[in-house]
Amino acid sequence: MTDDVSHDKRALRAELRERRRICTAKEREEFNTGVTANLIELAQRLGSTSIAAYLSTTDEPETRGFLRWACDHDITVLLPISRADGLLDWAPYDGEEEDKDLIGMPAPTSEVLGPIAINDVDLIIVPAASVDHSGMRMGWGRGYFDKTLGSMETKPPVYAVIFDNEYVAEVPTEIHDQPVDGIVTPSGIVTITEHN
Fold first, then answer.
1. pLDDT in tens, 135-171
2. Residue 13 annotated in ligand binding
3. Which of 31, 71, 86, 194 is the most buried if burial means most Cβ atoms within 10 Å?
4. In a domain, 196, yes or no
5. Rounded Cα gap, residues 111 and 108, in angstroms
6. Is 11 annotated as a binding residue?
7. Is residue 186 one of the residues assigned to a domain?
8. Which residue range(s) make up the domain with 146?
9. Are 82 and 102 in contact (CB under 8 A)?
10. Which of 89, 108, 106 is nearest to 97 (CA)?
């Protein structure tokens, strides 16, 4: 069973990577404008004062415009730095230099705060390959965000950022996979689970 799910995930990830790769520059620019506007709307709607987010890679919906806006509006932003043990450290975003972490993901160069720093935020923005209508998130296979979300005793609202066609009826799911409360896409915000 797990081998089948694992295979299904690999196949779906490959298809999604290819779809993202063949996006035109014009499409990508329009998508990024929509994602930035919708992330800003979400943060304003929730009255967020501190956010855990991430620096997008070239194939992901762009997060930097939103991160700059958050900093300009005195919202504390924490960004992840991958660790060898599969956990995430967090560091404040200052809009300045970026580096690569140990798995090659974009990371801030500011002071590292450790894994529990995320416990103080009031909104978490995560990357995803796909999210289904029940809120199950399929990541890119490294498990960092699943471990982080799974280890939190209480979580603020968690939203994944994806392209519109990556919000699907169902994604292959394993026991460790963590759901999200909603998604942000270029065309809008979908809240799947109301957060109390």
1. 999 988 788 999 999 999 899 999 999 999 999 999 8
2. yes
3. 31
4. no
5. 9
6. yes
7. yes
8. 2-191
9. yes
10. 108
